[in-house]
């Protein structure tokens, strides 16, 4: 692993996981004039759902809310609705990976001290993640060092040469649709992102950076159909239908 040698303290008994919620996108593809993370769903901003859910999971302590500098006022308004004592709003970078790195650097002192042992990184645009799934990812990450939620992609096959299928439909279960939150051992993922920054490596998600720069064998837990990403206007409509059908209410703390 290409990373600097960092001094790590033994994990104290009170060590916690940290939850990171990324809200660095825009509302262009969803047809909004503001960052989609601040669009309303069931009376709460999209980002508020993820923050509330992660904050309600036992073992998660600090919550880091990563936003574009121009969205800070919106972010403060979301935090003001609850969990105010636990959410730390910070500015993000130009890319998802830069924003993740800034969140990890924000937590670095606590990671080095052993106060934060695991970090879970979640997309604000996936508002309907459940507490159960967050807890399952956290547990798996603590056991193996890294974990992601995913769903078997039965409807996907690999394309081969000459318009052929390289992967027969009966083997399509070998492919996965990866979701968030993705959880990793804090010290290793911090070192991985620092190494990636030095090398100019840009991954597709947290797991890709972990795969490139750590020896962690990332495990997967079964994701949820309702943990979909809000990308287009129809996704927000679907989320509204889910909230109405399941009578979901975002709870703080």
From TrEMBL:
Keyword Phosphoprotein assigned: no
User: This protein is called what?
Assistant: 2-C-methyl-D-erythritol 4-phosphate cytidylyltransferase
Give GO terms: molecular function aspect only. nucleotidyltransferase activity
Species of the source: Brachybacterium huguangmaarense
Which keywords does this Swiss-Prot/TrEMBL entry list? Nucleotidyltransferase, Transferase
- Tell me the InterPro entries matching this sequence: IspD/TarI, IspD/TarI_cytidylyltransf_bact, ISPD_synthase_CS, Nucleotide-diphossugar_trans
- Read off the CDD domains from this record: CDP-ME_synthetase
| Domain of life of the native organism | Bacteria
Q: Which Gene3D superfamilies match?
A: Spore Coat Polysaccharide Biosynthesis Protein SpsA, Chain A
């Amino acid at each position: 692993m290409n990373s600097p040698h960092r001094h790590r303290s033994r994990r104290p008994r009170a060590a916690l996981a940290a939850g990171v919620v990324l809200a660095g996108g825009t509302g262009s593809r969803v047809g909004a004039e503001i960052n989609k993370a601040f669009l309303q769903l069931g009376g709460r901003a999209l980002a508020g759902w993820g923050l509330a859910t992660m904050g309600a999971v036992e073992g998660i302590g600090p919550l880091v809310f990563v936003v574009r500098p121009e969205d800070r006022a919106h972010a403060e308004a979301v935090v003001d609705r609850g969990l105010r004592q636990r959410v730390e709003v910070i500015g993000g970078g130009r890319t998802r990976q830069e924003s993740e790195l800034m969140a990890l650097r924000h937590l670095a002192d606590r990671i080095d001290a052993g106060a934060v042992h695991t970090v879970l990184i979640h997309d604000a645009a996936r508002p309907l993640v459940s507490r159960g799934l967050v807890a399952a990812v956290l547990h798996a990450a603590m056991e193996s060092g890294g974990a992601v939620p995913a769903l078997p992609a039965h409807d996907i096959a690999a394309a081969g040469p000459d318009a052929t299928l390289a992967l027969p439909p009966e083997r399509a279960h070998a492919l996965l649709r990866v979701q968030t939150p993705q959880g990793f051992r804090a010290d290793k993922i911090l070192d991985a992102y620092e190494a990636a920054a030095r090398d100019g490596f840009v991954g597709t998600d947290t797991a890709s950076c972990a795969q490139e720069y750590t020896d962690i064998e990332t495990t997967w837990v079964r994701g949820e159909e309702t943990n979909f990403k809000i990308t287009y206007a129809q996704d927000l409509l679907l989320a509204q239908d889910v909230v109405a059908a399941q009578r979901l209410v975002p709870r703080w703390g």
